[in-house]
Write a structure and sequence with these properties.
There is one protein chain. The protein has about 250 residues and is of the alpha/beta class. The chain has eleven helices and nine strands. The chain is globular. GO terms for molecular function: enoyl-CoA hydratase activity. Its EC number is 4.2.1.17.
């Protein structure tokens, strides 16, 4: 794999995102997540998965520049949604260890994990509306489940991120640690979970996902369709261009 490193430590698969400078969620990186899950699924010695980012960030978002060359943007976001859904329903517990920033697609990846541990200074948010877009990797459906509709609306409408300790207070993260302690603390928790029966862990994961109704999956599909429609607008072109040019976007509602 080009953008992921996979190691095993005491029954814990450590998946490290390595795509500097921001560990952006490119098409290839998303596909490699599926490839990593394939490998981990076959490895019966692995009981728990921890995902973290190398360098300054967990993942600062989707690869916006790559969007411009994607032939079918709706199919692209649908594929990412499917892989993130596989992550959320994966038979082994998946933990996100978040430092620096988890924004856009990075936060959508983290929200698909079963547990999230953060550094106190980490920034978590869905800033897609600042680009004239909407979250497309499941964010519109998962964020309200964690923080409630009003807070989710505020985070998406304003594009403002929340810090790690605030994320814990809102239920988006399980606990916050000092950055230098984060990965070690996350691995300690993962190794504790790894001592449990894999049969009971899988059954518990199945039950946690059992409450997801058909409305959730309809919403995921509608999100992909809406992303495609919004992506085709002049406002989206302006937002992406402004992002690339590092300037404020001027939206005209077209």
């Amino acid at each position: 794999m080009e953008f992921l490193k996979l190691n095993n430590e005491d029954g814990v698969a450590i998946v490290t995102i390595v795509r500097p400078p921001a560990n952006a969620m490119s098409q290839q990186l998303v596909k490699e997540i599926a490839e990593a899950l394939d490998q981990i699924e076959k490895d019966h010695s692995t009981r728990v998965v921890v995902i973290h980012g190398e360098g300054r960030f967990f993942s600062a978002g989707a690869d916006i520049k790559e969007f411009l060359s994607v032939p079918n943007i709706t199919a692209h976001v649908s594929e990412a949604q499917s892989i993130f859904e596989r992550l959320e329903t994966f038979e082994k517990p998946v933990i996100a260890s978040i430092h620096g920033a988890a924004l856009g697609g990075g936060l959508e990846l983290a929200m698909s994990c079963h547990l999230r541990y953060v550094s106190k200074t980490a920034k978590l948010g869905l800033p897609e509306l600042s680009l004239g877009l909407i979250p497309g990797f499941g964010g519109t459906q998962r964020l309200p489940r964690y923080v409630g509709s009003a807070k989710a609306a505020e985070m998406m409408f304003t594009s403002d991120p929340i810090l790690g300790e605030e994320a814990v207070n809102w239920g988006l993260a399980n606990a916050a640690f000092e950055e230098e302690e984060l990965l070690g603390k996350t691995l300690d928790i993962a190794k504790k979970i790894a001592l449990k029966s894999p049969i009971s862990l899988k059954a518990t994961i199945d039950m946690l996902n059992f409450s997801k109704t058909d409305r959730f999956y309809t919403g995921i599909d509608e999100e992909a369709q809406a992303f495609g429609r919004v992506f085709a607008t002049e406002d989206a072109k302006e937002g992406i261009t402004a992002f690339v040019e590092k300037r404020q976007a001027v939206f005209k509602g077209k």
